[in-house]
Write a structure and sequence with these properties.
- By secondary structure, this protein is an alpha+beta fold.
- A hairpin with a 6-residue loop joins β12 and β13.
- It starts with 10 loop residues before the first strand and ends with a strand.
Length: about 425
Amino acid sequence: SCMFTVAMQSVVEYVNPGEQRSGHRCGYCKSSDGRINNGMSATTMTCQDYQDLIERGWRRCDSDHFQLSKSQAKVLKRMRNYLLTGSTRKGREIEPAQPSRRSVGTALCAAGSAKLSTGKLAAEGKSGTGTELNRCGIATTCSGQDGEEKVKKRTQEPKSLEDFMFGGQSMAHKLTVTLIASDITNPDFAAVFKEEHRVYEKYQMHVHHDPPGKCTERQFQRFLVDSPLIRCKSKAPVALGSYHQQYRIDGRLVGVGVIDVLPNYVSSVYFFYDPEYEFLSLGVYSALREIALTRQMSKQCTEAWFYCMGYYIHTCQKMKYKGQYHPSYLLCPETYQWVPIKDCIPKLEVAKYSRLSSSDSDVLVETEEELSNVLVLARGTAMPYKEYEYRYGPKQRHLVQEYLLLAGSKVAKKMLLCL
């Protein structure tokens, strides 16, 4: 195990599934032994290396050409109507919590002093002004007391994703969305850590039926707070790295989206919410907010950005919903080409595993030369694998071959693999 880090370089360990003969219980398919770990554990990871790894096996959504479905529009309308009038389909009101003493909604960007070092962006609206989009286009606030009157004055329904979220009406409830760096040493994050954990604990116990012992602060920090990503500045309005996107209604924390901001990707990691606000379909709403964030990044950086939702399992209902965001693409496991999901569905209906690409491209096979150039870290010294094998023999060859196939030669010659 590697006990130290190398500044500004990815350091990883590979988990060899060949050493793990028995599987574990899978939370998705419910099989008692259907889960087998296969992948990498990162001590540190550059955002560019992480993006390159996404290009080797994760799913993405084309945010620039995103098409809002009818069901997604209904979720946005439900949220907008709740903020405007305070009414819900279940006919009940949620008592607003008192704002915390240290207000997370106080805007750095709204005050004209955005600081990438803190990674905290928000906008605080004034009563009666409605939704405001701050200069970085990331955090919004909805506020006001005359929502019902505004509803009567509306002449047309918004059509685009942004129209639903960034309208100008005054509100009965105030929604604040804040992007904050996921870093326990960041004072802004440390101030809300316990508050986040309480919502996480409620969510895990209510939705996933986890016992309290599996929802401790330590488990929460390890699972969703600690990140190996190395934070760095970029063309984007925030630094690259890991973030928590917090959703507050009238000061009360109701949901948190965990995301990674990469050079050309917003990667969704996890979302949890207060079960009392389940009627707002916050899981769908948060995904649409993250797509809107991705679109804003693309506009401000004048280059293509994609929204990544992680793995897609066609036979699993808990994963299949990801295909409802269009246009979306799946990565072919043999050619590593992105294929529109609508072209993949017929093949996945026939077989769980399929070559998704219809091109004539050959299956990518790593060469002996690429194996020789894999960068490894052994006994405190970084070296290419060919030198490692010369010094210590070929006993790790099979593991390094599997790692190369998983990671690809592009990053395998940049990241340090601990042996």
